[in-house]
Amino acid sequence: MTNSEFHANPDNFCYRHPGRQSFVLCQRCMRTICPECQTQAPVGVICPECMQEQRRSESPAQRRARRSWGARSMTIVGGRPLVTYWILGITSAIGLLQLVPGLDGPITNALHFQAAYLYPSLSGAPFEPWRMLTVLLVHGGLIHLGLNMLALWMIGQQLEPLIGRAKFLVLYLVSGLAGSVAVALLAPGMPTVGASGAIFGLFAALIVIGRHLGANVTGMLVVLAINLVAGFAMGFNIAWQAHVGGIIAGALIGLIYARTGGRRSARFWWIGLVSAITVVLLAVVAIVPPLLATAG
Questions:
Q1: Quick one: which H or E segment has residue 45?
Q2: Domain of 27?
């Protein structure tokens, strides 16, 4: 192509600014756009006209979400729930290893949770507080694993792109921690496995955030009900205490996220408040059972 032919071809220049050379295309209309006209999308960039069209087609809940959480969290983060995929992959891999003959016992014994591991002076067991989180990695069979991972996959597709990867991971871990704390307080003699506490925390947070944005959360309520009913129907040894702990923590964190939104200026608030919840959980589990044992 000669120089005159290059300059005569309008596809080599921004359609909104014909004097600006560019080789970047809008991912929706495929027209050439210059850097000034580019808006970051989950995949590639889009032009101002396509952005306006996209916003006109948004539902009221989507508009409220964009205003509340900001364009950055709704576009750059959205579409790739990587934390969800990593949790799914790691947890599923360990769950499948548990199905290998001879490995289930050692893996479960190394990662499951029981309150005895928090109070060596009372129980004689080794002090292994990390089990409050490693319990999220092991499950009581293929059905138990499948139900939890299905719920995680469904909710992660919606929640992680909305709140961002860091907030999603923090929500998952703190909800799981709260579930273990509830088991330690209410059922100290019960050995537990599973990510149900964290999963229920995600459900609770999504419901709180969804209600705050005016979204329809009926689908998530249905999935929550299916998990509850299926667990009892299949005869699992349900640790309802972990579910309650996860729901309470997830709802509180969801409320914090909803109130602070996606604004950069609010990041210190959500970090501080969620850290405070974590400190309270650790303080409660460290103080209350020993006091009860001493009183008894």
A1: strand 45-46
A2: 3-57
Residue 207, domain member (yes or no):
yes
**Main-chain dihedrals φ then ψ at residue 162, nearest 5 degrees:** -80, -45
pLDDT digits over 86-98, tens only?
Answer: 999 999 999 999 9
Helix (H, G, I), strand (E, B) or coil at 245: helix
Residue 21 backbone zone (phi > 0: left; psi -120 to 50: alpha; other: beta): beta
Q: What is the pTM of this model?
A: 0.73
Can you read off the two tokens belonging to residue 38?
């580019």
Q: State the Cα–Cα distance between residues 57 and 63, nearest whole angstrom.
A: 10
**Residue 204, domain CATH:** 1.20.1540.10
> What is the C-alpha separation between 205 and 203, in angstroms, rounded?
5
Name the nearest CA neighbour of 224 among 242, 247, 245. Answer: 247
Sign of CA dihedral 53, 56, 58, 62: positive
Over residues 149-167, the pLDDT tens digits come to 988 998 898 888 888 889 9
Rounded CA Rg of the chain: 24
Q: What is the average pLDDT across 34-54?
A: 79
| Number of domains the chain contains | 2
Q: Whole-angstrom Cα distance, residue 27 to residue 169?
A: 30
Q: Is residue 133 part of a domain?
A: yes
The DSSP result for 165-216, as a single string, is HHHHHHHHHHHHHHHHHHHHHH-TT--B-SSHHHHHHHHHHHHHHHHHHT--
SS3 for 8?
helix
Q: Is-contact 277 170, C-beta < 8 A?
A: no
Q: How many CB atoms lie within 10 A of CB 292?
A: 12
First-to-last C-alpha distance (Å) of the chain: 90
